[in-house]
Specification:
The structure holds two protein chains of two kinds.
Chain A (H helix, E strand, L loop, with lengths): L3 E4 L2 E4 L5 E7 L6 E7 L5 E8 L5 E2 L8 E7 L2 E6 L8 E8 L6 E2 L3 E5 L1
Parallel strand pairs in A: 2-11
Antiparallel strand pairs in A: 1-3, 3-8, 4-5, 4-9, 5-6, 7-8, 9-10, 9-11
Chain B lengths: L9 E5 L4 E6 L7 E7 L6 E7 L4 E3 L3 E6 L4 E6 L8 E8 L8 E2 L3 E6 L1
Parallel strand pairs in B: 1-10
Antiparallel strand pairs in B: 2-7, 3-4, 3-8, 5-6, 6-7, 8-9, 8-10
The chains are: A mainly beta, B mainly beta.
């Protein structure tokens, strides 16, 4: 299957700082990328959908000013958690797809805010 | 809406036995369903999918059953192996909805040696 790479896999940041997570499709052009958040022992919750070159569409309850999503190219989307707080600590997962393909998932990023 | 589980139900099976994991989906408009396997600290891994015009699909050691009448999905794993131990999620989407996947609450599968 296609490869989606997330970076970093783990990050620890201080409360109040911002953290950027990258999601790359390595061997295909991703017209759509999705960002999920997963708390321990819970399911994946969709945060937003981003189409290349367009503004992201956020799910209800997700603050767009706090979780900045950029999808500037067909192979890269970034999620920036701004002014991070301990409650933002979570496992963030991206997925990417092209037209008429399934969604391929990244390996996830463990964010810890201290 | 999205499914959020407060805890993960656990299915414990003996190695070599068959496993059946169930999932109730929420949206009658969903027409495409996928089962994912997630190991600790990793992203979801595709197992098998099924479209709403089918009620059964088989893969290697896995079978997915779809009952649209009661909005129920199941994953059957034959001859369960220790490497099958993981959390399993079903996901639903409508093919014309830009493929937004909504995940079920998940089931933890523990395989006893």
């Amino acid at each position: 299957g296609a490869v989606v790479s997330q970076h970093p896999s783990r990050v620890i940041c201080k409360s109040g700082t911002s953290v950027k997570i990258e999601c790359r499709s390595l061997d295909f052009q991703a017209t759509t990328m999705f960002w999920y958040r997963q708390f321990p022992k819970q399911s994946l919750m969709l945060m937003a959908t981003s189409n290349e070159g367009s503004k992201a569409t956020y799910e209800q309850g997700v603050e767009k000013d706090k979780f900045l999503i950029n999808h500037a190219s067909l192979t890269l989307s970034t999620l920036t958690v701004t002014s991070a707080h301990p409650e933002d600590s979570s496992f963030y997962i991206c997925s990417a797809r092209s037209v008429n393909t399934e969604a391929f998932f990244g390996q996830g990023t463990r964010l810890t805010v201290v | 809406g999205e499914s959020v589980g407060l805890h993960l139900p656990t299915l414990s099976v003996q190695e070599g036995d068959n496993s059946i994991i169930n999932c109730a989906y929420s949206n009658s408009a969903s027409d495409y369903f996928i089962w994912y396997k997630q190991e600790s600290g990793k992203g979801p891994q595709f197992i098998i999918d099924i479209r709403s015009n089918m009620d059964k699909r088989q893969g290697q050691r896995v079978t997915v059953l779809l009952n649209k009448t009661v909005k129920h999905l199941s994953l059957q794993i034959a001859a369960t192996q220790p490497g099958d131990s993981a959390v399993y999620f079903c996901a639903e989407t409508a093919m014309d909805s830009s493929y937004k996947l909504i995940f079920g609450s998940g089931t933890r599968l523990l395989v006893r040696p």
